[in-house]
Amino acid sequence: MTSALALVLAACGGEDSAAQTGAAAPSGQPWETRAANAPSQQPAFAGQTRAPEVSANIAYTVETVATGLDKPWAIAFLPDGRMLVTEKPGRLRIVTGEGQLSEPVSGLPEVDARDQGGLLDVALDPEFAQNSLIYWSYAEPRDGGANSTAVARGRLVEDGPRARVENVQVIYQQEPALDSTKHFGNRLVFDREGRLLISLGERSIMEGRMQSQDLSSALGKVVRINRDGSIPQDNPFVGREGARPEIFAIGVRNVQAAALHPETGKLWEIEHGARGGDELNIIEAGKDYGWPTIAYGLEYSGSAIGQGQTAQEGMEQPAYYWDPVIGPSGMIFYDGDMFPAWKGSLFVGALRDKHLVRLTLDGERVTGEERLATDVNERIREVAQGPDGAIYLATDSAQGRILKIVPVQ
């Protein structure tokens, strides 16, 4: 079930970028040359947007691993190399490296799959080899037509012809629930201590947007819980009157990608902006990332967002932003051996622009941008690194595919 699409890149830089070697930030023309939605807005610091185009001179091939998936959303690798793949309508499948799809895993709760809802992220417990626990996030239908992002866990069992999850527990429910079908904004990431970081969208509608910086609401937040759903006592707002104790950071919009930095252990996340203003943020405990008080870009209508501010004291600036947007979804810090020159790079899928973005880094600053897999011409929903060191992609369509990036032989 594999077919190859050769994509050989022309060299724009050396074998390794200046970002990974700690040298001075490269200069040059940016890949992005389209007009900004908000051309009068200025970045807060040099290199915050439109980084120079930087290539590592890698020739690679994109192979099709699996087909026939209905809007695949997330990939998690099992210890034996098979993949758990979520499908937006509410199905979880096991996919082999040869592209075989299992029957849907049974035992998952009902999801609200309208519009941007559905079955979202999936992650393995840090002690999966001992306990077989998996975690998944989804749009949960609630009373009166409302819904919210929820997280459940269960034990994956494969002792028969069809895999199932047992002892299912809903360990987190975003509050308040709203009547909206947008901005569920979720990724699941375990920190170094094994606690679960959960990004939560603000549900798009004004009622939710205005709660993004409200400590009594879980809308527009990053929260942190223990694996059983209990609250870590060192969370930044534990004990503060009127604050939800699970909150870790506030003021985010619609987070579609998140990953733990392999060296610092910090959570990096990427969220959708409106017309312009897709943001890469480095999340730290107790900090405010500004939405909707400050933002780059414009409303979908073309008007200013709020008062049109891009900065305010006490609110964090994004480490990087895109205007126009790329529609980011899925990200990894690459540390595999299959592509040595890409080690330390941040890879991001692009739904809107239909390709893979590679960012070169110098510490917490973006120093270069490269666009890869442009010939795929499909919405990239997920990016994952396989145990073999290849980069895996999931394409967002009713005939979705799992793709694999490998070097040209």
Q: What spatial order of strands do you see in the largest sheet?
A: 1-2-24-23-22
Distance between the termini: 19 Å
H/I helix tally: 3
Helical content band = under 10%
Account of the protein in words:
The structure is a single chain. With 409 residues, this protein is mostly beta strands. It has one domain (4-407): Neuraminidase (6 Propeller). It has three helices and 24 strands. It has helices spanning 18-21, 128-131, 206-209, and strands at residues 4-8, 59-69, 72-77, 83-87, 91-95, 119-124, 133-141, 147-157, 164-173, 188-190, 196-200, 221-225, 247-250, 254-260, 267-272, 278-283, 320-322, 328-333, 346-350, 355-362, 365-372, 380-385, 391-395, 400-407. A five-stranded antiparallel sheet has the order 1-2-24-23-22, with no helix packed on it. The chain has a four-stranded antiparallel sheet with strand order 6-7-8-9, with no helix packed on it. It has a four-stranded antiparallel sheet with strand order 10-11-12-13, with no helix packed on it.
Features:
409 residues; mainly beta; Neuraminidase; five-stranded antiparallel β-sheet; four-stranded antiparallel β-sheet; disordered N terminus
Topology:
Layout: E1 4-8, H1 18-21, E2 59-69, E3 72-77, E4 83-87, E5 91-95, E6 119-124, H2 128-131, E7 133-141, E8 147-157, E9 164-173, E10 188-190, E11 196-200, H3 206-209, E12 221-225, E13 247-250, E14 254-260, E15 267-272, E16 278-283, E17 320-322, E18 328-333, E19 346-350, E20 355-362, E21 365-372, E22 380-385, E23 391-395, E24 400-407
Antiparallel strand pairs: 1-2, 2-24, 3-4, 4-5, 6-7, 7-8, 8-9, 10-11, 11-12, 12-13, 14-15, 15-16, 16-17, 18-19, 19-20, 20-21, 22-23, 23-24
